[in-house]
User: Fold these one by one.
Assistant:
Number 1:
Amino acid sequence: MNVRRRRISGIAVTAATAIGLGTLSACSSDSSAAGNTDKFDVVASFYPMQYLAEQIGGDHVNVTPLTEPGQEPHDLELSAKQTAQMGEADAVLYLKSLQPAVDEAVAQSDVKTKIDAAGLTKLEDHGNVEHDHDHGGEEHAEGEHAEEDAHAEEGEHALDPHVWLDPVKYTEIAEGVAKSFEKADPDHADDYRKNADALAKKLGGLDTAYKDGLKSTDTKVFFTNHAAFGYLAERYGLTQEAINGLDPESEPSPARIKELQTEAKADGVTTVFYETLVSDKTAKTLAKDAGLKTDVLDPLEGITDKSKGDDYLAVMESNLKALETALGAK
């Protein structure tokens, strides 16, 4: 998806990958011995992938994240050490198009099991939210025009990668990850299946909580710092309006700010949401100018000490409470 193109250079990736492959050769020519532990070694590109690997793998996996807590994942550039870790691992779990540097390193790595989460569910085009939407209040009340507008353009937009924020799509990905783990490490297949089933139940409960909590609200429109919540909005009949589009750090146009101020009045918007890993300056400026409140809606791209919860489920529950308050849930 990444609208930004701050890619690690091909030369750097090639060099780093060469180091990784060299380390792999030095360790062993036997792929079963690859990695630094006697467990199933998984490299996870960023937190939502790390969470799946840990939940499904349980005690049988050793998970190494590429994105550190507090690091904005879209801008990740890999060190030679990280690329070497990927080369030594038994599996890499990533979301293609979210982190170009990871995509390039995975493509050049000979890690045996490559699991692309984007291929385990259906990605959708939610459009360029700053320019595509027709901001009629009645349409927003329906919460359906975002998808229509997204397809009005002729395929010029990147597919939205933020699938983990939809518990249903995240469950689909979890199922695919479990199958990959079972195939790659058949000795522990029963445990992977059991863990995946337990995770599916948790995510099913989360989905139910969102359906019930957001079923009846004063408004269906919410403002966010960047367009991370398109899948969540679509799943629960809401309309996301983002200040910065898919890029969390782009600058909105003055026309966009004015448009949002007008829309806030028309649709009864009370709150501008910002997030923990990106500057809240623009969100707070918009809120002040439009007389709105601010709150955190966490896109869960990483867990830090600022996160309102210590894992995926806890932060998603916190997000639900924030939405219920902002939208006037009954």
Number 2:
Amino acid sequence: MLEEKIRERRQTLEEFAEYAEQFAREHNEPGTLGVRHLQRLASGRGPKGQPLGPVRPATARLLERILGLSIDELLAPSSAEPPDDSAAELRQMIHASRRVDGAVLGLLREQLTAIRRLDRQLGAVIAYDEVCAKTNQVGRLLTHSLPGKPREQLAALLSELHTLAGWQALDLGKTIESWQHYEQAKQAARESSTGAFEVHTAAEQAFVLLDIGETKAAVELLATARRRAESTCSRLLKSWLAAAHGEALAAHNRRDDSLRAFDTAVELLPAESSDPEGPYVVLDSIHLARWRGHALARFADPEAVDVLSTALEGLDASFTRAETALRVDLANAFAAIGEREAVKIQIDRAERLASTIGSVRQKQRIRASRAP
């Protein structure tokens, strides 16, 4: 009770002890009250944790005059515990999650679409913080939502957000953060009603493995993803997975297998360039050519120049990061055939773009291309 009464006065134990000493002087009270003594009285324990002995009469009188209660009342246990606000906060969050309906989900998806547009045109340096804030917002809603369709849809949305954040973090050179985002994306995907989301997030995580030189592991991960996709995923996603597998195989120096994977990707590519029910992927004939050209450039194949040049001509100008990567590939392709002036043109342009969007990943590739 003593500490509770002191809190009511909006004083700390130190402030109250100082006030008590001043009160004693002004009112001719013989009692004294230091901070350590006050702490023992408040805790009910003496030195070394021993039970508290009798309070000196002068000290008891001083406390009684200041606080207006008997010493027995002041040393009694507090009559009530501090209010627990966590239950009220939990109810508030559950009620908020219950209000997630089709309109709210539609708004959240529109916000994700807007972030994607900012990301592809201005880069992760602009959009990464925003998508991380959105993952926190949607993550809180999912954590406090109850089983049902809205929870599954929130889980799918959170998976998409973390997948985007994972790709952005990789581009910014934040490799560990990227891996963690993909892990969170997979966890959220498992709660969605569509298995394609988990397949997609696992496949994208393979690019983190490629960036740290774990090419064999990336190849195996994507092969597993393609097998899982056979009966559960759309043709669009299966085409994307084949192309991603082709890139990993190229990194692992398996030329023939890589090119076969790209041929399969072309065969699977549907006329529709999007799947409203599944995970978001960007894939059409231009992007497939860009990926194939990247693989050909790895093998110093002269055909890479024509494939990449054609892809560059057809690429949507808003895909700034994709253009940056394509120009680095094209520089490498020109280097393989000894076209030094063309290499310089592409590297200079790629460097300007990489600086504009803050792409650490592409800057590293550019430095590697400049190396003798």
